Amino acid sequence: MNSKELDLIFRRVSIRKFQQREVDDKTIKLILEAGNAAPSAGNLQARDFIVVRDPKIKIELAKASLKQMFIAQAPVVVVVCANYPRSMRVYGERGRLYAEQDATAAIENILLAVSALNLGACWVGAFYEEEVSRILNLPEFVRPMAIIPIGHPAEQPSRRSRYPIETLIHYERW
Prior knowledge:
Elements: H1 7-11, H2 25-36, E1 47-52, H3 55-64, H4 70-73, E2 76-83, H5 84-91, H6 94-116, E3 120-121, H7 129-135, E4 142-151
Antiparallel strand pairs: 1-2, 2-4, 3-4
Helix pairs in contact: 2-6, 3-7, 5-6
């Protein structure tokens, strides 16, 4: 039994097949604003977003992602990066973890925003970081955390099963 307010969370699925229809800049900006609305340590928002539409760059990213070529088929790809100095200037070395947490919180918001707009996306974490950094000319203080292809879905996969929640919950101690 799901509460209607949580339907968006429970209907979100990973999409790996896309229609060849563009997603306009206004929509992508709205999705990224939703991403940046995620919580962040000290509200430092230690995350950056790279929007890729160039077909050649998308192919390079797909190859750097263990040849997951569906990435190149999406009309737009967003790479979410952790920006270490933005967090470390306040939190020191611990800020590295906080920047990564900031980025991953933004990733989940992006995925939910995409679903809310009836688009499709997939969180891709399997990639060669050094290669992605080279392709995107990332500064050394920025770490790519996820590659997110976004587009109009060309598939309707079923939601995948989850562990029974009772097997994941621990009370007071492990």
